[in-house]
Structure formats: structure tokens, C-alpha cells
Amino acid sequence: MDPISVVWLRRDLRLFDNKAILKAKEFNLPIILLFIFDDDIINELKKDDPRITFIYQQLKKINDQLNKNGSSILIKKGKPLEVWNELKKSFNIINITCARDYEPYAQSRDKAIFEWAKQHGINFIGVKDQVIFEKNEVLKKDGKPYTVYTPYKNKWLEQFQQTKIEVIENINYELISKSQFDFPTLEILQLQKSKINVLDYDISVMEDYGEFRDIPHKDRTSYLSPHLRFGTVSIRQLVLLAKNKNETFLSELIWREFFMQILYHFPHVIDKSFKEKYDRIPWINNEEDFEKWCEGKTGYPLVDAGMRQLNQTGYMHNRVRMVVASFLCKHLLIDWRWGEAYFAEKLLDYELSSNNGNWQWAAGSGCDAAPYFRVFNPTSQLDKFDKELKYVKKWVPEYDTPKYPNPLVEHRFARQRALDTYKSALG
Questions:
Q1: What is the residue-averaged pLDDT of the chain?
Q2: Catalytic residue from among 293, 336, 361, 395
Q3: Catalytic residue among 197, 286, 318, 345
Q4: Is 156 designated active site?
Q5: Which domains are seen in the chain, by residue range?
Q6: Which runs of E-coded beta strand occur in 189-252?
Q7: Residue limits of the Photolyase/cryptochrome alpha/beta domain (predicted)?
Q8: 252 included as an active-site residue
Q9: Distance CA 46, CA 333 (A)
Q10: What percent of the chain has a predicted confidence (pLDDT) above 70?
């Protein structure tokens, strides 16, 4: 068996400006590109989860590109450690390169594979790909992580100005192995095609992003988030573009990295409040109210439109996400973790760090969060951002008919109840 390097693709599903591939080329050995449908992740999802369908479609595009140049991608399904043990029987693996992932499951998985590789004399090399700055690269002067966004952003921008960011768009296929692997069908992988599709992204919205981003019916969002999540676009390319086009858009990309470093430095946020005292809040957690919130039947049009958009498409407008999350935590006094889990199941752009950070922001329990006494009024938010009801009528066709439900709870009562509950619990 000839010695080879393996590039393990995970959240970097592209061939251009791919740091793991570029690193593998340094070893000057034939390269096999590998993707593992991880049973530890997939078994927690539905067979037709749209995100899995999207991953499959992106892998097919990569394979088609490789085919044109006489090569292919190797697709496996199973538990990663078991897959690597099988691969070792068929290939003389010298190096494994991959893009680092910062979520707790990914870190424990990679640690296990690192130890396995070390036992077998294989180099396991992680590279930075999905962020501009990672882990401990943006810290305060005292070496501690930032927990407030604006100082983090300022430091991030300062370091960005001093960092040379390169985008390597040219794809050199010479070292990629000419092996012809069969590309499996979804049926062979025991998966099903979803009826929900991930939309193509639109970078042109950067031009007027700050002006229209809060108006739901205008739909001036980029739809980039799922592509960032799975690495079908290069963060370096996007950041350089945003730097020249739109500061507001660049700020959103920095928020993404802020929440990633919060998760990295404070992993307890996965199931606990960032601010410990917020775990004392006595949530009502009424299951019938939660079900109505999930279905978009709360009697508050903006909330219901957002939830129905989510359920039908896997997307929800960013402004509406804040209103929907605030309504669950403050109006219904339902634990933010319930909402976070529902979003994790439904959102096409679900990313643990951002989902967690945004939900804790809405609940008041997170770092740099909205103060607990800030309670979004879903009616005034509707008047402000969808006065003509264009967004609402698109997703709630029975609005303003006898079929539309009465509000689950009266706003003024709910607001005061939330303030009293928070104040009592937080002392």
C-alpha cells in the first residue's frame, strides 16, 4: 500500500480555499478526501433532516468536480473511530488533516481520533478554517476571554488590521488521489431526501444590509448561515468582502466568532445559564403553551408568522427570532432551553454557539445579554417592522378571520409577571 494523506472533511464542504486540503498538500503524498456520516450525530436526527440532505448534495457537487479531474471523494457512514479502524486496513495512512471544530462533541471526538492516530504512528493535524480568530487568539490584556461583545469586536478589528488574510481560490488537483470511489445513494446510507431545501446564498444583500435587515417581508437576508455552518463558503472570502462593502454585515460575522469563543471558554453554557443566578428562575413551563408557540398559534401575529416560517422552511427572519424568543421566555415564562432545543431541531443554520448565545441573550441569562427587564412587545414590534402585515399574511393566512386564535396571554399582565418573577429570583 502506497503512503497517503487523508483530508477529513466535516464543516468545510468545499474544494477552494480549504485549509485542510492546503495543509495536506505540504506532505507531497497522494490525498484522499473523506467524509463520514457520523452515526453519533445522525442517530439523534430524523432520517430526512434537511441539513443532512444539504450535506449530501454538497458532497455530490464536490464529487462531480473531482470526477472531472479523474478523482473522487470517499464517503463512509458509522462511528468515526470504527470507520478509521476499517480505513487503516485498506490504506497506508501517514497523515490526517482536518479543520478544527470547537463544539464540545467535536472536540471529544477529535481527541479520541488524535489518540488513536498517535497509537498507530499517524500524524493528526487540525487547522483553523471556519473562523478568522479562534480559541485564545482574541483575549483581554489580562489574558482572560471577553464576555462583552463591543470590546471583543474592537480587539477583533484591531487584530484583523494587523493580520494578512489570504484566499486561495485556485484548486490544484495534482496531488488528489485518482482513486474512483463509488458515490453512495441516500438509500445505501439509510437516509431520506428532505422536502425542505437550503436556499442559495445572496451576497448582494451586503449593499443595503443595514437599511433593510429588520424588515421581514423585504427578505433582505443573505441566507449565508447554513453555508457558513457547513463551510460551503470561505469565511476569509466573506470577511474581506464585508470589510469593503458593509460594516454592519461584518459585525454579524464577528458576533458569530464572539459566541464561538464564549462556548469554547465557558462550555457550561450548553445546559446552564452563563450567569449562574439565572438558573434560579422558577419557569412555568406550561406544555400546552409551549405546543402553541411551536405551532405558531399564540394569537400574536408576528410570533406566529415567525414560527410558521421556521416550521415550513427551516428559516426565520433575524428580527423575528428576537421577538419569538423573548415571547417564549418572558411572556410565557418557559425555559430558554426548551426554545433552544426546538430551534436546534428546526433551523437549517443551527449552530450550537450562536443558537445558545442568542437564546441566552433573549432570556437575559447570557453574556452581554439584554437586561431581564427588557421585554419585547410583540404588538409594537409588529407595528414597527411589519405595519402593512405583508410578512404576517404570507405565513398566517387565517389572520384577521374568526379562525385566528385569541392571544395566549395579555401583554401587560405577562410583562409584569415576568418582571416580578425575575426580580424575585435574582434578588
A1: 96
A2: 336
A3: 318
A4: no
A5: 3-129 (3.40.50.620), 131-166+201-265 (1.25.40.80), 270-426 (1.10.579.10)
A6: none
A7: 3-132
A8: yes
A9: 29
A10: 100
